Amino acid sequence: xxxxxxxxxxxxxxxxxxxxxxxxxxxxxxxxxxxxxxxxxxxxxxxxxxxxxxxxxxxxxxxxxxxxxxxxxxxxxxxxxxxxxxxxxxxxxxxxxxxxxxxxxxxxxxxxxxxxxxxxxx
Amino acid sequence: xxxxxxxxxxxxxxxxxxxxxxxxxxxxxxxxxxxxxxxxxxxxxxxxxxxxxxxxxxxxxxxxxxxxxxxxxxxxxxxxxxxxxxxxxxxxxxxxxxxxxxxxxxxxxxxxxxxxxxxxxxxxxxxxxxxxxxxxxxxxxxxxxxxxxxxxxxxxxxxxxxxxxxxxxxxxxxxxxxxxxxxxxxxxxxxxxxxxxxxxxxxxxxxxxxxxxxxxxxxxxxxxxxxxxxxxxxxxxxxxxxxxxxxxxxxxxxxxxxxxxxxxxxxxxxxxxxxxxxxxxxxxxxxxxxx
Lengths: 122, 291
Hints:
The complex is a heterodimer.
Chain A: E1 6-10, H1 14-26, E2 30-35, H2 38-48, E3 52-56, H3 64-74, E4 80-84, H4 89-98, E5 102-105, H5 110-121
Parallel strand pairs in A: 1-2, 1-3, 3-4, 4-5
Helix pairs in contact in A: 2-3, 3-4
Chain B: H1 6-12, H2 18-31, H3 35-41, H4 47-59, H5 64-70, H6 76-89, H7 93-99, H8 105-131, H9 136-154, E1 158-164, E2 174-181, E3 186-192, H10 194-205, H11 214-235, E4 245-246, H12 255-258, E5 265-272, E6 277-282
Antiparallel strand pairs in B: 1-5, 2-3, 2-4, 3-6, 5-6
Helix pairs in contact in B: 3-4, 9-11, 10-11
GO biological process, one term (chain B): chemotaxis
Protein name (chain B): Chemotaxis protein CheX
Keywords (chain B): Chemotaxis
């Protein structure tokens, strides 16, 4: 692992990716790639092999659950943290059962994000 | 009648020109530094630290200084000195217009008195409209939330101006709303024109106008609604329902459709230094429950 953990940021909102990327960089992570849908998420994961994936549940084409399944199928050791909207508890539980390491709720609290991502790396 | 900022009031009365107002707003912004900017300017915080506190303010309803103290980035004496310097440096728009020669002090005094009367009238009209509306209590609480949240999120003040009817909403084509499902469902949204959407996006994301395209502006409007929704659920909706679930931001429903049911929805025009925008609140019918 490099000194700065690498992150693949997956969310269909470009604005959220910009906000989160700034927060991640300031928290000491390196954003090595961004994806706007689940298909791109898998492609980017294969190409970049990041230390962490921050994965939105609701995305076009191939949603977060499908992307999680495909990423873990490709690399069972992938560290994926789910990004969810308020109240998506059953979806979160399903993702955790599938192998996601943890989850974060929007809007993103930068301190919570750093804490959760560091725990996921441990 | 809608409540107006002094600059807008003077512009509409033909007392000042648009270039004069823009120059004054720019000069006022340069003198009225945010606490984080002041701390950076004085070398007490670096830019990354100030940004981090600002980011926390988007999800926590706390003042910049309180977070800085908690993080140990400032001590109380430093914070007190910063607050004092901020107060001392603060300039009102009228003062700046006088300094720039756009208006003489005597005329400003007359206009301030007229503006005060105008504001009070607009305020009482707005209060009456909101109080008599079936969703008035909800609107009052979310307006207060916007007034508190937007300066922290966007670095710009906002104030409620008036209640709008559905036919008046066609001039704000950019919309984003989030539906919160649960026993007390709520639609919460914002609508504005494209110029305002771009200005809001640039403020939210810290971008230069040239770096913000229309799609990003709409996207950022959705993120702003998401943040607003998060606060509204915590502070406005009853906490007896742990099953709240927010759907992703929706840009397809026009403001007039969101506010079509005059009993279950309300649209409030908010003025800000970044442009006007409309707060949209609607109470969809709750899901049917078994008898």
